[in-house]
Amino acid sequence: MNDPRSAQSLKIAILSRGPRLYSTRRLREAATARGHDAKVLNTLSFSIEVESGSPRLYFKNKKLTQYDAVIPRIGASITSFGTAVVRQFEQMGVFCVNPSHAISVSRDKLRALQALSRHRVGMPTTLFVRHTSEILPGIERMGGTPVVIKLLEGTQGVGVILADTTNVAEAIIETLSGPAKMSVLLQRFVKESKGRDIRAFVVGSRVVAAMRRTAKEDEFRSNIHRGGSAEIVDLDNEYQRVAVHAAQIMGLRVAGVDMLEGKDGPVLMEVNSSPGLEGIESATGIDVAGEIIALIEEEVLFPDIDLRQRLTLQSGYGVMEVPVDERSELCGKTVRSSGLRERDVIILTIQRDSVSIPNPRNDREILAGDILLCFGKMLTLRSLAPPRRKRRKRRKADLPVVEGADPVPSE
Ligand SMILES: Nc1ncnc2c1ncn2[C@@H]1O[C@H](COP(=O)(O)OP(=O)(O)O)[C@@H](O)[C@H]1O
Ligand SMILES: [Mg+2]
Hints:
Bound molecules: adenosine-5'-diphosphate, magnesium ion
Helix content: 25-40%
Strand order of the largest sheet: 14-13-12-15-16
CATH architecture of the largest domain: 2-Layer Sandwich
Number of domains: 4
Strand content: 25-35%
Number of strands: 21
Structural class: alpha+beta
CATH topology of the largest domain: D-amino Acid Aminotransferase, Chain A, domain 1
Radius of gyration: 24 Å
């Protein structure tokens, strides 16, 4: 018991409709094994009471006692009510492993891909249309058939169909979006992935376990629920980077990130906010539930703070990103000779390509292309921003990699 965190016992709520489900049981076991008090609470037995100044939750008609942390395991069929319960916990100041907003976004395949698309994450070209007249030209732009058709909010492989010809694709889409009014996506078929995919289980800022799933014969969907089999896999850096990056962009601390093995590297499929534990723990033998509880201990004792929110409280001071280009007065200077300190500004990190240099030393040179994350007097910070160029590509989206780590190969 050298770990100081185990000294404090936490009260943890696992929101789940199935106390006997493998994932729920394992989370409760792992919490208990680490000395915490964990309760499984059926998400649907809550009532949410909204009132100014005192957001409350009732569970089976009794006012809920104070919890330290919540692990949401919200099924796809109750996303709306489930995320409302999580949101209420958030209003009450309780730490939620995955935030309600992130859960909602991850449930909508299109919305999730849209959020990820401006970042350096590979994904199959995906099309969302309203008029059937848009289908044919869209398929042609994607390189023709076969194409994958999926329901916007499908899960476990249900509603994922491979269409061999445009006629079939049109017929399927017309059927689904007809009276049934289901929204569907068209997606380029990544055929080189051959019925296989990678599930990377992200907890915090790392992949704690990963498996490769292989579809059963004559099936292109590798979901375990569709009869796929799983084996442990040692993920290379690029796959790990994409998995962690995708989870972070989505705002999920715990995520099951699904990727196909494309010919140019990882192709992101989706980011699941309530990933199952059974498949991954049995394929890898890793105590994933224990990792989730360890994350909670870390976050409850040392919570992340929202820098912007805290620092802008002192008026006139704030945090800003300062891009440096060759015209900038900072370009070519060292941190010391930049004179920023004297002007009441400190550089928190330098973002250089995909490498992040925290607390740069005084003799560190500032180069064109750097993005400086600075804290200080807003007046000075604003004067440092270069004049806007036409349609400058944002680079801050790249995952910060702490210096000293292997450089990440670009795509
Ligand atoms: N564009 C695609 N190219 C190749 N295979 C795909 C494609 N989209 C989905 N698949 C296969 O189908 C499976 C299920 O698709 P996915 O989008 O993850 O839906 P679900 O949410 O139902 O799991 C994937 O794990 C993958 O094996
Ligand atoms: Mg999937």
